[in-house]
Amino acid sequence: MAAVKKILVVGALGVVGRAALERFAAQPGVQVLGLARRRPDFAPEAAWLSADLRDAAGTREALAAHQDVTHVVYAALNEQPDLVQGWRSAGNADLNTTMLAHLLDALQGAPLQHVTLMQGTKAYGVHTGRPMPVPARETDALRDHRNFYFDQQDLLEARAQQQGFQWTGWRPQIVLGVAVGSAMNPVAALGAYALLRKEQGLPLAPVGHPHLLTECTDARLIAEAIEWSWGAAQAHGEVFNIANGDIILWARLWPRLAEFFDMPLGEPEDVRLATEMPPLAGLWRRIAEREGLKVPELDTLIGLSWQYAEATFASRRPFPVPPLVSTIKLRQAGFAACIATDDCVLAHLQAMRAQGYLPT
Predict the structure, then answer these.
(1) Does domain 176-215+247-324+336-354 have CATH number 3.40.50.720?
(2) CATH 3.40.50.720 region(s) of the chain?
(3) Interior CA angle at 7 toward 234 and 2, to 5°?
(4) pLDDT tens across 52-64, in order?
(5) Nearest partner of 104 among 92, 117, 91, judged by Cα
């Protein structure tokens, strides 16, 4: 990383942003800057900026003293209160593209070398109700509907040509990591669901379709791949699928979760997380007060992740075909790191315990 001088992680409190910031802030000789709307409660060794990317002037002001940024990890995202409906919203697409434009405008004179852009499997139309190509390859991206992934990519590619920096895009599957208030954090949802069941004296009831197959992506793996892409010329101007390297049958994860939380494993139930969990906020508050947790409010901890859980792994409605992607392009380009998904889930739950978000 000799050429890396100053890394800006945008959306640094999200699942991907947090993993990236923690990875880079731990490395000597590198300046790391985190940008977010909310206050951080981790990585004190990093410098932090508060800015709302929806505000062009505010973004310029926040970054005015940081025109020496060389690498940007753009992991910021605006989601609507109705998460899935927002994925199809033209207004939300416009806003997300405008946010990236404001960031790039604010760094117009910086000596940028590389910008990382986050996408996902919505590039393959998984949110439209149509079956995904299986396995979805990068060339299977569907541009026949409004999707800010492509608007942002087109914008970034044009700016890169104008300013002379490189860029790489990433399409992870269900991302696993640690974050507070994220719109898409299945680990927090799993942890809170288990603990609320346990507090009520109930067994851990598996939710979702019993034969659901998916892939997931550890946020730490994404951070490692981002760092690799900076020095890999074959990654410049490219978009890659990225996943842990295995396929998870969710029915096999529940016994390990029950063991982790020291709970009996119950029979599967049709629990509607998005509607049945939020009313348990008072119960979570009692757990948090008793255990001295950092985040006493359930909504603050979970964000929109109950909705995301139902859209990905917690719905009883099966996908038409398993939503699987090919990672051959990334492996052939030279990045082959991997991790077992069930180990990854438990590692992040343990991290949430260690950091005071879940009881020990």
Answers:
(1) yes
(2) 6-173+219-242, 176-215+247-324+336-354
(3) 60
(4) 999 999 999 999 9
(5) 117
